[in-house]
Amino acid sequence: MPPPVAGASRPLENAPLPVKRAPVSVAGDPGQAPRFAARPAVEPGLPAGVPVTARAQAADGARYFAVAHQGVYSIIGDKVRRYASLSLVPRRENAALLLDAEGRPVLVGDGAVAHRWTGDRWAPWRVTGMPEHRLVNLGVDPDGRLVALAEHRPEAPAPAATPPAADGEAAAPAAPPRPALVLLRAEGGTFHQLGRFPAPPELEGPAQAGPLLIDTRGEVLVPLFWQETNGQLRGAGLARFADGGTRLEVWKGRLGFDEEAQSPVPLLPDAWVNDVARNPAGVTYVATNAGLVQVAGGKAKVYDENDFIDSEVITAVAVAEGGRVWAGTLEGLGYLESETWHAVEAEGLDARIGAVAVDPKGTVWVAAESGLWRSADGERWQSVPLGVGVPASGVRDLVFAKDGAIWMLTTQGVVRFTPAG
């Protein structure tokens, strides 16, 4: 976990590392790097007592510091920013595949409109009951009902003449209307509002979200993101809608030990959430770009490279019957059992994992760069042939139909197949 951050008066935020940077010149002789790397950070705003391994000065005056085990920090004026590892990870598109109560696949992509499979084509599906809202993402509760997360961003009122204040100076303009997050559930073909909440401060732009997870108690967990004007996504933590969708709390990315001690809700090691799962006892497992997080009783425990996980970037997570927690990483597959991490030593499962799912029979399915794999006992793995023309890699999501078919969302489209055996 990161050490306390010095200079707390400066604003600090997580951000993806920009692809394009201003020209830089390295400060110092590269031959002195070994001695320089052993020098602890003393720059206000950087983690205290942690070695700085490199630094650079940009043409626009920004200073960049590579901090051991912490990533890259920039200091521009009084603003400090930590660049997270998510910029090094292939982005998972904001898309999810789910099945409605009738077993019809519903596809939610980057747009505000979902698409439903009619049997021979994908038809646009404009969700009724939320005319003034923008659909962000959908989920299915244990009863098969659709639950929607929407965003309402009111239009800013037209500027009006501002009367002078009493001292003769112009009064400050009114603050723009604050956007809201709205949680809705389908009843009789129409969505009805469960709760409406002011958008949390972590959402600095239009909201995006990962798939909604709804447990048997009606709690909704959803990864949050926000979109910059250039289209780039930034992580905003995990939203938890509790008490029947009437209360919202956000598990945001942790910035230091001091913040964790003062937070009334669990904090995550990184604000970018790739996946989330929950076991029947209510223990939550969150796949982040800085480790696998277990949240139980309001307390968060992080499993990372210190626990022998090959990669701290957790791409997918699923809970199997019996409590074993399967997780995919950038460097392969493994599972958490009795608070111990076990890596799967199997050829074909030693690279980036795209999706992990457990079917109703308890079989574990894994989408890897080498194709689709399954295991009934978690020990012996079988490669699953998908047929000619079906993409073997690039699988983002797996869902299981009642008739035994498997629907897969891939980089090249949606695939339905019925596995043999």
Layout of helices and strands, plus pairs?
Blueprint: E1 12-16, E2 24-26, H1 33-37, E3 52-58, E4 63-67, E5 71-76, E6 79-84, E7 96-99, E8 105-108, E9 114-117, E10 122-125, E11 134-140, E12 146-152, E13 180-187, E14 190-198, E15 207-209, E16 213-214, E17 220-227, E18 233-242, E19 247-251, H2 257-262, E20 273-278, E21 284-288, E22 291-296, E23 299-303, E24 314-319, E25 325-329, E26 332-337, E27 340-343, E28 353-358, E29 364-368, E30 371-375, E31 382-384, E32 395-400, E33 406-410, E34 413-417
Parallel strand pairs: 1-6
Antiparallel strand pairs: 2-3, 3-4, 4-5, 5-6, 7-8, 8-9, 9-10, 11-12, 12-13, 13-14, 15-17, 16-17, 17-18, 18-19, 20-21, 21-22, 22-23, 24-25, 25-26, 26-27, 28-29, 29-30, 30-31, 32-33, 33-34
Overview of this structure, please?
The protein is mostly beta strands and 421 residues long. Among the domains are: 12-88, no CATH class; 90-155 and 177-252, Neuraminidase (6 Propeller). The protein is 3% helix and 44% strand. The chain contains two helices and 34 strands. It has helices spanning 33-37, 257-262; strands spanning 12-16, 24-26, 52-58, 63-67, 71-76, 79-84, 96-99, 105-108, 114-117, 122-125, 134-140, 146-152, 180-187, 190-198, 207-209, 213-214, 220-227, 233-242, 247-251, 273-278, 284-288, 291-296, 299-303, 314-319, 325-329, 332-337, 340-343, 353-358, 364-368, 371-375, 382-384, 395-400, 406-410, 413-417. The strands form eight sheets. A six-stranded mixed sheet has the order 1-6-5-4-3-2. The longest helix has 6 residues, at 257-262.
